Amino acid sequence: MTIVFLAKDFSRFSALVDRLRREQDVELLPVSTGAAALAQLKGKRLDVVIVDEQLDDMSGIDFVKAFVAINPLANTAIVGSRSEEDFHEITEGLGVLMQLPPHPGAADAEALLAVLAKISGLMAPTITKVS
After folding, report:
1. 68-93: per-residue pLDDT in tens?
2. Three-state secondary structure string covering the chain
3. Rounded-to-integer distance, Cα 88 and Cα 64, Å
4. Residue 72, burial from CB neighbour count under 10 angstroms (0-12, 13-18, 19+)
5. Which of 5, 24, 80, 100 shows the smallest number of beta carbons within 10 Å?
6. 13 with 39: CB under 8 angstroms?
7. How far is CA 55 from the centre of its chain?
């Protein structure tokens, strides 16, 4: 599983990262600016990109809008503190999985992993046994 963290301050993600590292076959890739991420991640197969609410060079929402245009099948989660209604309104149509709190912890990692497992279960091919 490839997880990209896009933030200007990675220290806020330590509890989330610690929990995600306990998963098998997890590759964590830190990227510090939106422009660098857009260049590095174009067309790359990723499981999820976790984007901070504000980056050095753009907002998290602006990054996701640009990212969807170059990698439309990648899953994203945005760190922020918007109300559920505001978050839904702003991210509608962008395919954002969820909003993570400003200081995400182990429980937030569990919630993210559960959403990713659900998605991969939906994407897994089904085998029908023919009698």
Report:
1. 999 888 899 999 999 999 999 999 98
2. CEEEEECCCHHHHHHHHHHHHCCCCCEEEEECCHHHHHHHHCCCCCCEEEECCECCCCEHHHHHHHHHHHCCCCCEEEECCCCHHHHHHHHCCCCEEEEECCCCCHHHHHHHHHHHHHHHHHHCCCCCCCC
3. 14
4. exposed
5. 24
6. no
7. 15
CA distance 12 to 6: 12
5 forms beta bridges with 30, 50
Residue 128 CA neighbour count, 13 Å, CB half = 1
Which residues does 96 contact at the CB level (< 8 Å), separation at least 6? 64, 76, 77, 78
What are 41-72's pLDDT values in tens digits?
888 888 999 999 999 999 999 999 999 999 88
- Whole-angstrom distance, CA of residue 5 vs CA of residue 32: 8
Sheet holding 76-79, edge to edge: 27-31, 2-6, 48-51, 76-79, 96-100
